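Give me the fold.
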Amino acid sequence: MTEAILAGKKILFIAPHFFDYEIEITRKLERLGTEVFFYDERPSNSVFAKTMIRINRRMLHHSIARHFARMMNEMKGRDPDYVFIIKGETMSRSLIERMRTDFPHAKIILYLWDSIRNNPNISALLPLFDRALTFDLEDAHAEERLIHRPLFYLDEYADASAKTAFEYDACFIGTLHSDRFAVIKRIAARINGKIFFHMFFHTRLLYAAHRLFDKGFKGARIGMFRFTPLCKRDTVNAIASSRAVIDIQHPRQTGLTIRTIEIFGAKRKLITTNGSIRKYDLYNPDNVLVVDRERCEIDPAFLLKPFAEIDSAIYEYYSMDRWVRDIFGL
C-alpha cells in the first residue's frame, strides 16, 4: 500500500547529518519508488557551526541563508510533492513561506527527533507545516499541533534478533554529553559481567575540555574513548551480541532515543535512565530496567531472565516501514 501511494512522488528531504540515519531514510523512500532530493539543514557540520546553531543561530544567519538559497535555486522546476524536514533547527518563517510560493502543490511535513526545549526556535513555526510530528510524548501533550510518533528500528536490527549467543552482558554505544560518562561509570560498577563500550567524542578537543572542566571525568583516560563513530554493521553486531544495552538520555530529553527503539527491534534488554518509557506500549519490566542517574541499582536477575516476547502488532509499529507510513499520513 505505501509503495503504491508514494511511487513516482518527488520528495525534498531536509535533515541534519546524524550517524547516517538520513541516508537510511533516503534509501527507504527510494525503495518505495520516490525520487529524493536530500539537503543537509546545516550549512556546515563543523563543531563550531553545530554549536553556534544551537546557542546563537543568528551568528550564522548569512551562511544559513546562502545555503538554503542555493537549495531553492537547484530545486527550481522539480516541483516536489512533499517537503520533508527533520528537526528544522535552521528553519525560518521566510524559508517556509518561499517553499509555499515555489512549491504550491507540495505538502510540507516536519518531524522532530529532538525535544522542543533543545530547539525552541521551531515552536513559532509549527502553524506553517501541513503536518508536524514529534518523538517526544511530553511535547505532543503540550503542543496540540504535534502528533506523537516514536522513532524506528532499521531492518538489520530485526534480523539481529535471531542471534542467541551472547558475548557481552551489556554494551554502551553513544556520544558523550551532559553527565553520560558519570552515569555509565555508575551503571558499569553495578554490572558483574563483560561490557562492550564505544564512548564517542566528535573531536579530541571536546575530550580535553571535559577532562579539564568536568568533575565526572576524574580518572578518565583518552584510551577509553573513540573519536570515530561505530559503523552500522559493528553497532548492530555489538547489540546483537549483548544481553542488554545501556541507554542514557540527555537530562533535558524525555522522548525515546533511536537507540532505545533499535534495542527493542533487536529484542535485547534495556537498562535506561529514561523513566518515560513506562508510558509506552513497548514497556515490559521483564525487558526494561529503569535506573536512577545517581544510584543506578541493577538487579542481577534482570540480566539472567530471557527476553519476554512482545505482541507482533507492537513490534511492527516501531519498524521503519510503519514509521514512513505514519510520517506521510498514509
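The longest strand covers residues 168-175.
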